[in-house]
Predict the structure.
Amino acid sequence: MKLVSWNVNGIRSVAGKGFGDFLKFADADVICLQEVKALKEQADHSIWEDGYQVHWNAAERRGYSGTAILTRIPPKSVQFGIGMPEHDTEGRVITLEFDDWYLVNVYTPNSKRELTRLEYRTQTWDRLFREYVKSLESRKPVILCGDLNVAHQEIDLARPKDNLQNAGFTIEERTSFGSLIEAGFIDSFREFEKGGGHYTWWSYQSQARERNIGWRIDYFLLSAVLKPRLKEAFIWPHIGGSDHCPVGVVMKNSR
């Protein structure tokens, strides 16, 4: 089973930049999207007519945030949000239940340039989200993916010393992400690749992508019990159309 995640930075924008070709190339069973920035009816449905069932969680604020999941495998159940209306207005979470696990697609709030949302993000959102995925895990294992808006370690960004006080690499955000790891989730990519230079987001400025001055802030995290079934984890930096690139995993069948 191949699962792919991608922050598309606007589904209507990426639709005109080869999204249909990406779907054919990916040939994934499940594709999780973040930052769709649109209502479902505003998107060009022709780009996912290849047998995909579509689940969409748009933000109340138009043109902002939002998540979607395209799946060829019908889920047993679907949940939008974390079950707390006051934190679910931005369309940041979709959960699909399959036979063997829950799949959670998340677009974690950004702490903002002046760190104006750092406290909310680390003290409130991250804590509630962690409690949510652990509650799911009490029933069956969890695969968690999406744009988590944090580079966990220095190896996860090109210029760590220059970004110690910047959103996405503050001690608070990194510690909060570490709490997910301490709670029993494994970083799938690091199971296969221990070296640096592998990123999933690049600024549009100063030819950062061409120079590979990037950050790894998009992840697949797995309940530890699923580790024996993790066959592959990958990053596709050659896929353009967004300031992020897709990431993914391949899971072995249970039999």
Observations:
- DSSP finds four helices and 14 strands in the chain.
- The longest strand covers residues 2-7.
- The two ends are 12 Å apart (CA to CA).
- The chain has one domain: 2-251.
